[in-house]
Design goal:
Blueprint: H1 2-19, H2 32-45, H3 48-54, E1 56-57, E2 60-61, H4 68-82, E3 86-94, E4 102-111, E5 114-124, E6 130-135, H5 138-141
Antiparallel strand pairs: 1-2, 3-4, 4-5, 5-6
Helix pairs in contact: 2-3, 2-4, 3-4
């Protein structure tokens, strides 16, 4: 009788699991622009853990490499600097010496009514996932 109960719960469990968001460990994005957009939306939501799944290197997300508390502190700092009213992903260009594995996207970030162009470097890992590798935060912190 017990085995019947377990077997009858399996479809319900599979249905619940299929409704959950993709596993955080998968991280990264499928294209450079969508990866940057996801990273900026997670920053706006203050979802520092998920940001750590999108920020990384060609070796994968930093959340898998560094202690979670350290990653959350870093992502908090980045998200604080990236706070904005709006952003627009402008253009994408290959990086000499890294063609096929990394690109730079220019994102116009508007803060307090002032738009500024911020370069983002996005890199591809061995599983064709893209990660934000670098954000030129100085473009937002420099006083002109």
């Amino acid at each position: 009788m017990r085995s019947w109960r377990i077997v009858s719960l399996v479809p319900a469990l599979l249905l619940v699991l299929s409704c959950l968001p993709a596993r955080a460990q998968d991280g990264g994005g499928t294209a450079p622009a969508s990866t940057v957009e996801r990273f900026l939306r997670l920053a706006a939501e203050k979802n520092y853990v998920q940001m750590g799944h999108v920020f990384g290197t060609r070796d994968g997300p930093i959340i898998q490499r560094d202690p979670a508390a350290q990653v959350q502190r870093r992502m908090f700092a980045i998200a604080s600097i990236l706070e904005n009213q709006r952003f627009v992903i402008r253009d994408e260009q290959p990086i000499p010496g890294r063609i096929g594995e990394a690109v730079q996207l220019t994102v116009q970030v508007t803060q307090r009514g002032h738009p500024r162009d911020v370069p983002f470097v996005v890199v591809k890992d061995g599983h064709n996932r893209w990660f934000v590798e670098q954000v030129d935060l100085e473009k937002l912190t420099r006083v002109d």
